[in-house]
Write the structure tokens for this entry.
Amino acid sequence: MNGAEILIDGFKREGVEVLFGYPGGVVIPIFDVLYQCEEIRFLLTRHEQGAVHAADGYARSTGKVGVCIVTSGPGATNTITGIATAKLDSTPIVVISGQVPTYNIGTDAFQETDMVGLTRSICKHNYLVKDIAELPRIIKEAFHIARTGRPGPVSIDIPVDVAKSRLKNYHYPETIELPGYKPVLKGNSKQIAKIGRAIRKARRPLLYTGGGIVSANAAPQLLAFVEQTRIPVVTTLMGLGTVPFDHPCYLGMPGMHGRVAANYALMECDLLVAIGVRFDDRITGPRDTFAPKATIVHVDIDPAEIGKNVHTQIPVVGDARQVLEELLAEVDYQIDPAWLAKTTGWKKQYKLEYQDSSDGEIAPQQVIETLNELIDPNAILVTDVGQHQMWAALYYHYRNPRAFLSSGGLGTMGFGLPAAMGAALGNPDRPVVCVCGDGGFQMNIQELATCAINRIPVKVIVLNNSYLGMVRQWQDLFWKRKYSQVCLKRSPDCPPDCRGPREDCPVLYTPDFVRVAEANRVHGLRAAAGGEVRSVLEKGLALEGPVVMEFFVKRTQNVYPMVPAGKPINHIIMGEAA
Amino acid sequence: MIEKHTIIVTVLNSVGVLARVTGLLSQRGYNIDSAIGAPTENPDVYKISLVVSESEEHIEQITKQLNKLVDTIKVTDISHKDNYIIREYIILKVLVNNRNRTDVFELLNVFRAKPLDVAQSHIIMELTGGPRKVERFIELLSPYGIKEYVRSGEFAMAEYQPTKKGEKNGNQNVL
């Protein structure tokens, strides 16, 4: 067998059902093998970034390893953003890139880039295959490393001569020998008992959980633990859906754009049980002000996360599901209900509020709230990055893990559409809805053609405020309303010192998304007034195949609640009036 | 408090492993004072000695991140351990004249340094020793005028450690 055949054989043995990718000179040997391969579906994207985000969306929604194949040089560098996205959100993907022949490496050959060097800091691990004899082992290891422990991206760079050369006596390895790689799954029982004692002693315990619950498939255990103990719980952006939005113990997402109740609970709790989270600065605010009254328990599969951002009193290294199972046996009683009542009281007191525009403008929040009424409860919601992402996180009625997908850590604009495409391929029997802003949608808009041609029925909702809204919001609140380069309607005719929407703003938005949709043979619908939101959503969600639904929303709407950068998380701006 | 730490990283002898280890430190904003990597008696194993000046907290984070690398087998911060032999190798070129040449040779003898090249205007010498010995040697030679020196950076090996409690003086270097 040659290297390319070994690679595809390895994919089959690792259970790969779908590949995302884009061909090029040095990967022709691999594509040559794929030509006859019926077991694996190949999705040809329109850009390598689309391929890597699609693999990521597939991985996030299914829990399986997402795989993409690209060529060397520009093909390889186009995957960089997607690899970093997967790294920061700990999602398992394997990226195969072609490389110039081994005898040309280092000569600045045509389409040569040092992929191993480029991806070193954004990968969980990476390989350059210099010898065909190493290939079977490397494939086996790559999938193992991507999906075990704290999941993450693995890159394999395969020179074209390795893909073409033959290996006698090929056999796929049964076992893995990685003396330095042994993720700890079982938490130390003494430490877990300590958590139990800490909960018994605590008066105001709080659960703070995140993406680690999703990776460990521990949502049922988390829910069982919450129900058994009645400890209030907050979940990070990466953990949305592990606890249903309407659970009586659930306080919502905390942080910069978090729910007031979640932030207050973090600041008031005397025991913080953090599981599968990493104390990101968007959650904690200034770290010395975070959870000032709390003893901190931190459970994580990655020992390097413990103590990285905050000082921890009770550390436990282990898999979230295994630790929660032990905790279920350890804490078999309900805590004092007064604390839960207090926190859920905050939730009732500080509701999410927005003004329905009287003049018929669409409030972006209204689109999400109407979507809640119309969407299939089994659907997967994918977001892009920006204001709409936070409105989706705050208003959407998430019910299941792996059903709210968003680029959290890296905040990658352009993630939404291709990730939704990947999620749709991984979940052919579930509706997939992608919420985008008008900025991020254009970053990988070319994938509309991929959706159309391959009949991938992604329903895209574009909340068009004609602004790079999140940056505009910061300029609005903290930069004296100097809206520098955030208006996507801005032309050379506009006044240089424009301070926001005016009577004489350009009327038309470029491009016309409905016509872009139609040019891609995708249904295009538009709502320009509040009264049209429901009918457009109803119609768009019911149509077969991919759909673009554009909503011209209130241009100056900010996301609230908001904690200004550098402020403790209980210093919350509730809305325009404040 | 910022302190000098010597960290021994035992890794698999894989392609680019030295770059992986040193890259990890620079990626997270830590400066490396010195780094030596070389193969060991086991061809599959490679050892890297790092000297990093950082606070205790940062050192903890560095060792955790190093441990996370797939190729890493073991990470040991030997800074506060007394059962390690730490050595450094240095080559110096010192300016001399007819008046002070004997003084310099006397220092060489005391420190058991070895002359490699003796000329009218300078002496090139080599010295091997623990960190304090090397520092002191440089200090004592500097009044004569050190033209240049190159240092290997520190490397280390654990001493024999008795496992039975009864054995005494186990932690003292017997030589």
The longest strand of chain A covers residues 93-99. The longest helix of chain A spans residues 48-62. Chain A has 23 helices and 18 strands. Chain A has three domains: 3-164, 189-349, 364-552.
